[in-house]
Amino acid sequence: MSAAPDLPLWAALLVSALVIAGALVTLIGSIGLWRLPDFYSRLHAPSLGATLGTGAILIGSMICFSVLQSRPLIHEVLIGLFVTLTTPVTLMLLARASLYRDRVEGNRAAPEHDPEPTEL
């Protein structure tokens, strides 16, 4: 049984636009993973796709369930918090592990030295 007929038109349009936008951003990130030339370039696209795409889908879910059930949005907020925190950390750990491996093996894809920190 679906609760979609109970959703007002404005909410249904907004939710569908957010879900489609989130799916498209995630798809673009997946295409970037497939098409970009090296590992370091490939890390960036799916992490942005996962964070922004999931964020748009979660906002659509928040709107849908707040209109239909008038319940707190704790689940969606927690999912958004965990995705926002874990995606950049995973990206950083993968990049550092790959950089270490490439430097040990002598691959030219990795820079030889870390860049100097810049002052703002």
From TrEMBL:
Keyword check for Membrane: yes
InterPro entries: PhaG_MnhG_YufB (IPR005133)
TM segment ranges: 12-36, 48-68, 74-95
Pfam families cross-referenced by the UniProt entry: PhaG_MnhG_YufB
Record flagged with keyword Transmembrane: yes
Keywords: Membrane, Transmembrane, Transmembrane helix
Domain of life per record: Bacteria
NCBIfam families on file: CPA3_mnhG_phaG
This protein's name: Monovalent cation/H(+) antiporter subunit G
Organism: Ancylobacter koreensis
Gene: mnhG
